[in-house]
């Protein structure tokens, strides 16, 4: 299956390309007053307001080193309704409406082989990490977007 | 009227073909949806019973039954009723799930599905086989369906599901061929998604226009385009908007048919029909509302016999209303029926195993009433074919909440029930529609507040802050005219640090003050910055939110709130401002909740019981003086006018003084001549108070008006005397004598103000019923002044009735107000007149409701006389007549 891979800090993450609606340069993100820092704010996507997840905050609870990459991008995800039923049955899903991910850079689309898939190492407890796939000499962390959003909606983050 | 295209369907005379077609056009796809759902759950059922699924299954079939009943599709109704009965048994574990039952249910679902596919919707088809199969399954142990007696079957029409079915697509109402034909104004169907896209793009165009205006300013060439864009937007919005009346009107039929069926008398009142709502929201409301209306008629309104036994008018009332409230739309269904008895709910909850006895005992009234939303809860002892087995309320609630509404219920035993659904702003208005909003700024965030909720904007300089803001415990309040309103920091609601705005540096800085007004005056003196807050209205209440800066009012395009922020109730939606900034729209309801403003508890519960239209009539009095330090008062409603006159204009004739009013001369009455009080010091001008409702106009001269005030405290009647003083009160630490104008006038000029005491009233025993302390005392005092020795008072109808039951023989005449809480005058009189022991007791209405219609209504209700407050001459006349009649017997 094809995966979109992207950087958050120096780490490479991947999500199925099926989930991606488009990739956009970073437009103005308008912060939501006083909310969970994992939600970066709102963007104006051709007249629709779209919630933006700050992936650094989402993935690294204790903050992550400032990335040398200065090419932050928005990955705009498909709403669940736009994802074919058979994939959703396999757990490939996003959220009931479109959400954007704020990432440090997008890498590339790679075809990854499920046989290289490894479950997450035992000391990773985040439910939204599905596992790891080796791509050549790189490790790509597989994310479950639906579980990530669920975590955000159910667990409040109180870190300032 | 018969439907041209479909043989076999005959509509009732009062329903036009169009209404029917429209209703059916909506019914078919919905029915299909429910059937698909039912089928899915049925198949799951075989692998094990899950109470949630059983409930869902039951609801699906119940909805079909309800709609079929409404559309008079009796065959579909019968089949669904059979299925529903079995499901109810399963749900309540009266019967185990068996293969046979599931088979039967599946067959019933198939049958319904086939009928829904036919143009005639199963009309005239024989469903004998289904009923027979049901009877066999149900045996004799369970109740048979409500309409087992099948009318003589017409020649059975062979079921032709495949042949007759029009091509069914996933798309909505295409299943009705007749709906579109023969219409004068040709219509086409457009998918909702297409409309949505259209709206979205037009919204964007409006937005682009606004941004352009912001940057480029107004050009002549552009203004024409700009206007076209506004028109375009309005038209596109109109394709989605519909007045709620189009929905409400459907229920008049529901109510009529249902009340006929149940032998009840019900009047339906529709209010707020003109309010527009998004079509999709209207459609989504249709189902829950029909349940609520049916419930109100079936469970709420009592039978005429019950009603008259309770002293209510035999005709019950159901109100459906839509109203704007704080930028939201409120839909209410209200009945004046039996209400909900929390104790019955408590008992039933335990009986049905919903709650354990201890848990039920611990619940308060409000929580108990909310239990009616629990699945499978029904308090009516037998299920009816009408609104069934308590399925209504949980479906209603989950449907309404599913569309983002909050549902409230208020009920009172024998007082009626109000169920209200509050539709949030972004649901009520069409997505991408335009509303007017005030843009405010706090901590660098721009936020929009719907203009409809904004009552006023207040800016306070530092010394005004000291004067008008008070601290109460750890909250701050603002003195807004005669109200004290809570002040809330918007930052607290948004969960951000408090800030203040410095107009010199034009920046917001962190606000470290604990409170706006410091207890240290020196600190306050150093303050230079003004504060600004917005007074918002929530229901009948006001509160202020402090912000950093007020921006301008802008027409904003409303967008839904991203689901990521769904948990934040302070936001209603989002918008994109003219400068391209994405901004959040604040939700008044959510802010009230977040700020913990408990207005509800502090609100007069009477507001919720059909008294919206009744104006609050607190008794107001005019306080005036004659000699500087002697104060008097007269109720405002007893005065027709108050004016100033020059003492030089007084004409004297013997001992009498006159002034000219409206071309006529009227005599002046001086208080120092009528009462033992000091005279008015000499003045160039004086005031004159002219009483209303007197046969011979007379002016009461006085020095000046001191105040008008609400009369709340008790009248001290120790000072009362026969000369014309009713009693005394304290106002503003001054002793104020309340005048009895009628006595005053009578005593000053007995020939013209005739005393009407033809009979000796000293032995008459009167029960005065009035909810207002003031009137109770005033009326009682009047009677006492006229020699009545025994006057008993009661605060409402119930209290009066209780007293009468115990003391029948110590009352000769009842004088009762009409508008009262708990039990009103109409109920009281019909109770009195329907109790054999009290039947002969004369009851006089004494009310502020004048007018022929009210008088007729009062006399119809059983009052022996009807007098308006406070036409004392007539009151005494009536009382005397009633008393004489009663004693002659």
How would you describe this structure to a colleague?
- By secondary structure, chain A is mostly beta strands.
- Chain A contains 3 helices and 11 strands; from the N terminus they run βββββαβαβββββα.
- Chain A has a 6-stranded mixed beta sheet. In chain A, strands 3-6-7-5-4 form a 5-stranded mixed beta sheet.
- Chain A is globular and about 45 Å long.
- Chain B contains 28 helices and 36 strands.
- In chain B, the strands form 8 sheets. Chain B has a 6-stranded mixed beta sheet with strand order 10-16-17-13-12-11. A 6-stranded mixed beta sheet of chain B has the order 23-27-28-26-25-24. In chain B, strands 2-4-5-7-6 form a 5-stranded mixed beta sheet.
- The interface between A and B is medium-sized, with 26 and 29 residues.
Ordered list of secondary-structure elements with their pairings:
The complex is a heterodimer of chains A (160) and B (889).
Chain A lengths: L1 E7 L2 E6 L3 E6 L13 E7 L2 E7 H5 L13 E5 L7 H5 L9 E5 L1 E7 L5 E2 L10 E7 L2 E6 L1 H10 L6
Chain B lengths: L16 H29 L5 H20 L3 H18 L7 H19 L10 H11 L22 H4 L27 H25 L3 H21 E3 L1 H4 L1 H13 L3 E6 L4 E3 H22 L3 H7 L5 E10 L2 E8 L6 H10 L5 H6 L2 H6 L20 H12 L3 E7 L3 E8 L1 H4 L5 E9 L2 E6 L3 E7 L1 H7 E4 L2 E6 L2 E7 H5 L4 E4 L4 E4 L10 H6 L4 E8 L2 E7 L1 E9 L13 E6 L5 E5 L1 H7 L25 E6 L5 E5 L3 E8 L4 E3 L2 E6 L2 E7 H4 L10 E7 L7 E4 L1 E7 L14 E7 L2 E6 L1 H8 L16 E5 L3 H13 L4 E5 L2 H10 L6 E4 L8 H10 L8 E5 L4 H10 L3 E4 L3 H17 L1
Parallel strand pairs in B: 2-4, 9-20, 13-17, 22-31, 26-28, 32-33, 32-34, 34-35, 35-36
Antiparallel strand pairs in B: 1-3, 4-5, 5-7, 6-7, 8-9, 8-18, 10-16, 11-12, 12-13, 14-15, 16-17, 19-20, 21-22, 21-29, 23-27, 24-25, 25-26, 27-28, 30-31
Helix pairs in contact in B: 1-2, 1-4, 2-3, 3-4, 3-5, 4-5, 7-8, 10-11, 11-16, 25-26
Cross-sheet strand order for the largest sheet of chain A: 8-1-2-11-10-9
Structural class of chain A: mainly beta
Strand content of chain B: 15-25%
What kind of sheet is the major sheet of chain A? 6 strands, mixed
Number of strands of chain A: 11
How does the helix and strand content of chain B classify structurally?
Answer: alpha+beta
| Element string of chain A (H = helix, E = strand) | EEEEEHEHEEEEEH
Low-pLDDT parts of chain A are none
